Design the sequence.
């Protein structure tokens, strides 16, 4: 089993991936999520992970390799130490030595690991032009062309960040849960409904508008793939997405590992 670790700004996701299974979502045997905290030590990770592995009927010996993708540099050291002390080997760091596909942008060195991994997995599973929308701390749009080259994208505030900014800047507005409004009406009759409409349907409108503009700029048919922890919020309330792949980044980690070890 491969232990794939996706360390994001909000959460660190650990997944067990069966390397003998065909690449894709069915190869993921288990996944666990913990809040990102660069201060968390490798010993703390080990205790937590050992208990979760035991619940799956496994122990640390089931893990034969570790790969890490991270956009939080301060979290990397303890994750590397976790691999070396508790899983018997050095972790592979996704992106070290390059990504293996063309980065046709002005600042290729600044592409986040999560976005690069999403591009790898999306192109492998869905050949052709693609727009990948990852709903996390930020919402990112990434464009991959039919050759697998990364052409650029968009970074927007995540929906939780948008709500946080609204509530912190307006003293009388309450904190609300982010959810699809019960009605499709965009005329709210009270403060909470009006906030919910503005945050939720406003966000949907942004997604639909940016996808339409991106498709027009590409000029060819392009699949729209949604992923990320918050993607499920929008899946049933817009028809802009063609494919929902909640574990795209983990699939990218598995592919990077397999390609490196097939050489």
Sequence:
């Amino acid at each position: 089993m491969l232990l794939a670790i996706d360390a994001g700004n909000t959460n660190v996701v650990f997944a067990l991936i069966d390397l003998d299974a065909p690449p894709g979502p069915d190869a993921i045997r288990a996944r666990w999520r913990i809040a990102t905290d660069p201060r968390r030590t490798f010993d703390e990770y080990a205790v937590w992970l050992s208990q979760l592995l035991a619940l799956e009927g496994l122990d640390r010996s089931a893990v034969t390799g570790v790969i890490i993708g991270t956009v939080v540099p301060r979290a990397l050291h303890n994750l590397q130490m976790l691999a070396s002390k508790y899983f018997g080997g050095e972790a592979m760091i996704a992106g070290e030595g390059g990504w293996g596909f063309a980065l046709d942008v002005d600042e290729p060195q600044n592409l986040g690991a999560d976005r690069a991994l999403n591009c790898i997995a999306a192109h492998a599973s869905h050949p052709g032009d693609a727009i990948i929308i990852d709903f996390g701390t930020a919402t990112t749009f990434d464009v991959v062309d039919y050759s697998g080259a990364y052409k650029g994208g968009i970074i927007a505030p995540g929906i939780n960040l948008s709500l946080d900014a609204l509530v912190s800047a307006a003293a009388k507005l309450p904190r609300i849960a982010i959810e699809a409004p019960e009605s499709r009406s965009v005329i709210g009759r009270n403060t909470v409904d009006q906030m919910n409409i503005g945050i939720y349907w406003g966000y949907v409108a942004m997604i639909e508008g940016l996808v339409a503009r991106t498709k027009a700029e590409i000029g060819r048919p392009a699949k729209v793939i949604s992923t990320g922890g918050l993607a499920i919020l929008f899946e049933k309330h817009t028809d802009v997405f063609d494919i929902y792949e909640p574990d795209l980044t983990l699939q990218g980690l598995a592919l990077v590992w397999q390609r490196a070890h097939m050489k």
User: Anything to note?
Assistant: The first strand starts at residue 2 and ends at 7.
